[in-house]
Amino acid sequence: MTQSASAPQVLLGHHLKALRLPVFLREHAKVAAQCAADKADYPSFLLRLCELELIERERKGTERRIKQACFPSPKTLDGFDFTATPSLNKREVVELARCEWIDRRENIIFLGNPGTGKTHLSIGLGMAACQRGIAVRFFTAAGLVNALAEARSEKALVRLQARLAKVPLLIVDELGYVPFSKTGSELLFEILSQRYERGSMIVTSNLPFEEWTSVLGCERLTGALLDRLTHRVHILPIEEKSYRLKGRTKRGAKGEGEKGKERRS
After folding, report:
1. Which tens digit of pLDDT belongs to each residue from 5-55?
2. At what angle do helices 157-166 and 182-194 cross, to 10 degrees?
3. Domains and CATH numbers, the chain
């Protein structure tokens, strides 16, 4: 290749880097060869490159949102065993994965015994939101209260509240496992109240609503919180016992049966 012929290639590479089009830079020669073989016109060539660039940006954007959400582990709805929880409305969960309820600033509450998949479901819906370009932040209830208390002690509470207020979907997992102090309950109430009709939430709890006072410690505060949470809400109860416990029980029974066979033999 002559110097005059290579000059456009050098300039093209420079411009594509400046425009932050890495897929264009990486794939344009290959796509050009394919289009030449297919006898495709220039708009088709540009369309193919644009599609590749968009796919890559969407992939990286999804990865970034999932990382920023701070999920404890990646879980999808495809990996959830709905047969283990027949009381759960699978059709409604699948519909909620379309994330239109987030646009309407509605909430979801999963209620059920420990080990019934509430965390898995909340992460699965959060992952679906990330894939649709929606920012998500995941906390356990205790973790959120601790983060708020720490920010308060460092005079950074307003800044944290402002950051969380901008997140379209806030997930608060395991409400009910740890009772909060008066200050902790007030901090949690404040952050959840700020989202009322401004952002969506998913809350999971092992307790029915009438027992939330045992966690928050104040009947009036609990009533005010439930009034806001349940105004525009999808409540999904899970009535089964822990399928993790059932799985361990089955494995234990199988092990005992095998030991019995050995003793008999």
Report:
1. 567 778 878 777 887 888 888 888 888 888 889 888 988 888 888 898 888
2. 40
3. 3-68 (no CATH), 70-246 (3.40.50.300)
